Amino acid sequence: MRSSGAAFHECPRISDWLTALILSAALTAFFWKGLLFGGGLVGGDTYPYFFPQKQLIAEEFAAGRIPLWHDRTALGYPLLAESQGAIFYPVTQVLYRLCDAHSAYHNSLLLHYLFATLFTWRYARSQGLRQPTALLVALIFVYGWFPARASLEWSIVGGVWFPLCLWLTDRLIKSPSILRLSALSLAMATHLLAGHYTLAFITQLTCVALALLTQPRKMADEQTPQASPGASASTSRIKTASWTIAAIAIALLLAAVQLLPTLELRQASQRDGQENVFNPAYGHLPPVYLSQLFASWWYWHTPELIQTRAMMQTPFRSPADTNAVEAHFYAGLLPLALCLCLLNRSLRQRIPPAIRYPWPLLTALATLYALGWLVPLFRHLPGFGFFMGPGRYTIVATLGLAILAGASLDVLLRRQSALFRSLVVSSIAAVTFVDLQWSSQAVSDAVIVDNPPWKSLPESWLARELQKADHESPVRLLAPGPNIANLFGISCVPHYLGLGPAAYFQEKFRLEGPGSNPDQSFPSEQQEARLRLLGVTHILATDPIPLPAASLELVASGPDEFLNRVWGRGAAPCFLYRFQNPPARIFIEPPSSAASVQILERTPGKLVVQVFSPNPCVLVCRDLNYPGWTATVAPTDAETTQPTATATPAQNDRPSDAEQPRQIPPSESPDDFRRTVRIPAGKTTVTWHYQPASLRYGALISLATTLSLILLAAIARRRSSANGLTP
Fold first, then answer.
1. Can the peptide bond before residue 229 be classed as cis, meaning omega within 30 degrees of 0?
2. Dihedral angle sign, alpha carbons of residues 699, 703, 704, 708
């Protein structure tokens, strides 16, 4: 019979790895079998938020460009800076170059579920759990927390790195070295590149907490007769925590190519502390809703209670809003019963110290913060005020419950045969898998359909009509369902953004659609002036406009194969209107009948325009005026129809010689919704290009840090080899 200490230090064999990999793949394939056979997710943020990003990313990669700017949501926004596009994330770079956006999105989901299960199993083994119970821990954690959040891609794309970073932190705690520091730094940096930094921040906090709470392996060897055991333990914990903090610092530098553009957007975003726009307590876990731990699918997670939002009528809740997905916290009834067994002191004392001390405390602290009560205090600390969704801290509590349940079961089955242990664990796993599946299906706002709406895009008459109009002159559509019409390949308003430019959250950007006031014509004079200011050319309605303004004309109507399936409207018609004299996206001021404006090239991050004007004028583009856009003005000969190939930056703001192009600031207007540039008389070519300095500086920092880390790791490996040590 092996002791718990022997099991604690045991390294998984190749057969154990193969077993874990096969089980991870089997669980992924069974749970997401609909995706394996050509289906797709519908609901929640899938179509309004993620697909518009993924479609543009795939198109830009196919064109050989880096997708830095999204020109289809509202008047544009920095896609890289928003972070959830995960432009430099390795999985994004591979899948969205090899597959279409729809396939890449779902292949990414399957891949991350597989590795989340595998990484969680490996972390559980590092905590001294045997093979069967470690696999059970992985099942509880992965299929308890993630499936309910299926419409939130960031949950699994970011969450997969949580258990891996914990395992690498555990290795660093047990035996600090440069190589192990490098491995943890790379994992944390990849976590940051995956975008949506909430889970990355939670991971970093948990790793530091584990480093402070876990007794280092070499502590006893470092004790001296003069030092007390308590003082030595504290010193060792501080040393190991400093290694972990160093790994976090290196990870931030490695991911600077993603972080610096996000910090730039953060300074110009709506997350400025005003709770009427951004409330970090949104997405909390109402205290009474904690009872879902034992009253899940048979009470709290029933469709009736979820639809009535009964959890928001419970006592002691935070005044902020929340929803069942953000507040989901369930690990299964049998795992909860196993955790309750730890109330027995004798059983609790037989659990490995690496589990017995840190994980009950981390589970309790994460659950407490998830309630939202501490947000008003913690929001003033670095990091906490930037993120919303305190309910997301239940990722720590769910893993804690899974680890504690596995440890309890390991102790209960310690004296049993291997066959009996496997049978018991398998039975518990089967019941728990069904239990977790019922619960997550009730809570999730996304479902798998065999024939997803995405496949109907080529059959959409709206897409054909709008793309044809956009080819002739840039289109901007006022449409219900923010961002959905982006999938037609055109710009649309209003927007739906998590981290977005502050200009979009101002009063003047709040747009009302048809039907807001059926007794008045639409749009009213004031509404039309606002729409024209934003460059809106077309209006989409799900019902005929009762009193259309005289400036509107109906283009066409009828059921749309794509939109009707996204919105579940059956065969109901859609109505497409346009302004009879639509506002131009690019024009000159003051207007002149002798002037002409011709678009030569238009991509998300670049716009090339040829202008002829008999007098000096101002060229205007109705797009977001955002840092990073620069304008290059170059004279063009009368016979030339192509823009100047290269542009050299000017040393100052004065015009350069007539033969040379000049580069000037992106706008001379304080208007958030207009980019302007002064141009001389005659024929000129103006090139607007999005080239943010934050990307250049971030790339330099990331590259320098990567090279330095490779050099340090090589030196450390050489020294280890020279001393005959295992790195």
1. no
2. positive
Q: What is the pTM of this model?
A: 0.90
Question: Shortest CA distance to 125 belongs to which of 241, 3, 244, 16?
Answer: 16
Q: CB atoms < 10 A from the CB of 193, how many?
A: 25
Which of 683, 530, 698, 525 is closest to 611 using CA atoms? 683
Q: What tens digit of pLDDT does each residue of 424-477 get?
A: 999 999 999 999 999 999 999 999 999 999 999 999 999 999 999 999 999 999
**Residue 160 near residue 28 (C-beta atoms within 8 A):** no
Cβ pair 137, 405 in contact under 8 A: yes
Q: Biggest alpha carbon distance in the chain? A: 94
- For domain 586-691, is the CATH number 1.10.3470? no
d(CA 12, CA 35): 31
Cβ atoms < 10 Å from Cβ of 10: 15
Q: What are the beta bridge partners of residue 676?
A: 620
Q: What is the pairing mode between strands 617-621 and 675-679?
A: antiparallel
Q: Are 189 and 149 in contact (CB under 8 A)?
A: no
Cis amide prior to 494 (ω within 30 degrees): yes
Sign of the torsion angle spanned by Cα atoms 617, 623, 625, 631: negative
**Whole-angstrom distance, CA of residue 1 vs CA of residue 418:** 11
Q: Per-residue b/e over 87-98, b at no fewer than 16 CB within 10 Å?
A: bbbebbeebbee
**Where does residue 99 rank: exposed (0-12), middle (13-18), buried (19+ CB within 10 A)?**
middle
Closest CA to 485 of 55, 91, 195: 55
Which range among 19-28, 270-279, 653-662 has the greatest average pLDDT?
19-28
Give CA–CA dist 727/720, Å, rounded: 6
Q: What are phi and psi of 512, to 5 degrees?
A: -105, 135
Closest CA to 236 of 175, 164, 184, 163: 175
Measured distance CA(440)–CA(148) in Å, rounded = 4
Encoded tokens for 391: 């309910």
> In the Cβ-directed half-sphere of 12, how many Cα atoms lie within 13 Å?
24
Tokens encoding 720? 């280890």
Give the three-class secondary structure for 584. Answer: coil
- Helix, strand, or coil (residue 327): coil
Cβ atoms of 362 and 207 closer than 8 Å: no
DSSP 432: H
AA letter at 718: R
- 3-state SS record for 158-173: HHCHHHHHHHHHHHHH
- Residue 576 in tokens: 């497409």
Cα–Cα distances (Å) from 553 to 269, 488, 578, in that order, read 36, 21, 6
Q: How is the chain split into domains, by residue range?
A: 160-269+693-727, 506-579, 586-691
Q: How do strand 606-613 and strand 596-603 relate by DSSP bridges?
A: antiparallel
User: By C-alpha distance, which of 183, 192, 233 is closest to 212?
Assistant: 233
Q: How is the chain split among helix, strand and coil, in percent rounded to 5? A: 55, 10, 35
- Pairing status of strand 476-478 against strand 538-541: parallel
Task: Return the bridge partners of 552, or none.
Answer: 579
CA pair distance 521, 579, nearest whole angstrom: 14
| pLDDT per residue as tens digits for the range 289-324 | 999 999 998 899 988 888 888 888 888 888 889 999
Q: How far is CA 135 from CA 128, 167, 336, 406, 434, in A?
A: 13, 15, 17, 9, 16
